[in-house]
């Protein structure tokens, strides 16, 4: 059969895995420049097929679950989420589990979470001095850890629990790395710490669930939705499953939002004229009011465009993967069963016929009259697309708008480093530390 062309380079046995690890985006871009929408790379033990450009991305994201599978691609998460949770569950069960998230992310809940985002912005940035230098990567990850804890476990737990929770969570994260991608159960210290942390996390959630059963009223958080949910056959979730799903949503939503927060800081420090326009938008919507509401956030169109544009230039998830269950053809090329197909938001977002002048930071692209993200429905894929598109899009937008609304109204930012390169050594790509930014509180 007529396989897609093979990218030159790569090593015996491991193929292109080393390059995929050190600079995946440069590798995918090199292949696209040479061959266009579809080409092959050699991965350990399997053929990788990279698909970029709006036509290839449309093909990619329209597959059904019986045609391609995410399960093998994301099995490195199984030791954290747990057996039988999310990608490790049978497709029907995974669908039901994702359905519980739908309940936890419905609009009435989003309003409650937004109150938490607003309260956290005031609390967290209220502790900043008049001026200071911060590592914006750390700031993003810390503030979103607190907002996440509020949404998952409630506002009370934000103060009671965040230390214990964040330590366990850090150990769980330490067990997710490039090694675990190929060998998730090696007896390495990081993997042992990961497994111990998961046992403790179950104990911690078990305690909270027991308290909830005694005092079931008035809890508006993701944990409560899971406690009240049951599968289609009537079975309630076990504490192990509740913990696994809490970790699933935490891993999906925390660093992705955290690094986006920090990229916005970098982009706004680099583009002061956009910063000024965003401050003007805040004034227009709020007048002299200090406290913002859910409805105010809906009106912040330039801020919305800024978030979309940060996600276009710096998508936190640079690659997504699926295992091919049924061979298919694309542009006359044959993609065999068993191969791993790869799509890349980072490369796909910078294809000039999808987004003109693709390297330019231009939040106006999304505003009425232009709406460049609508031109190709599979062009902007920071949140994926199709049946497994991210469930946290609205959540992420509300959270980032609440945090940035506060900063825009209270601080000015300056760059401290000449450039802010992307760090590809993490699974979620953020700015490379130290990512230093100076803030100054605006006199009122
Ligand atoms: C799926 C990105 C925030 C929950 C995805 C996917 C991407 C993504 C690319 C698709 C993966 C694939 O196709 O293989 C992001 C980004 C975020 C973000 C860039 C922040 C800026 C969130 C938040 C939540 C969340 C805040 C929850 C509150 C999920 C879930 C899925 C998902 C549950 C799986 C959906 C499915 O498989 O049907 N996300 N995400 N994400 N995301 Fe997000």
A few lines on this structure:
This protein has 18 helices and 12 strands.
Features:
binds protoporphyrin IX containing FE, five-stranded mixed sheet, 18 helices, globular, alpha+beta, Cytochrome p450, 52% helix
Number of helices: 18
Radius of gyration: 22 Å
Strand content is: 5-15%
**Largest sheet at a glance?**
5 strands, mixed
For the record, the CATH class of the domain at 83-320 and 373-441 is Mainly Alpha
Q: Residue-averaged pLDDT, rounded?
A: 93
- Low-pLDDT windows of residues: none
> Which word captures the global form?
globular
End-to-end gap: 70 Å
**What is the string of SSEs from the N terminus onward?**
HHEEHEHHHEHHHHHHHHHEEEEHHHEEEE
Enter the CATH topology name of the domain at 83-320 and 373-441.
Cytochrome p450
CATH homology-level superfamily of the domain at 83-320 and 373-441: Cytochrome P450
Task: Say which molecules are bound, naming each kind only once.
Answer: protoporphyrin IX containing FE
Category by helix and strand content: alpha+beta
Proper CATH architecture of the domain at 83-320 and 373-441: Orthogonal Bundle
- Helix proportion range: 40-55%
Q: Strands across the major sheet, in which order?
A: 1-2-8-5-3
| Number of DSSP-assigned strands | 12
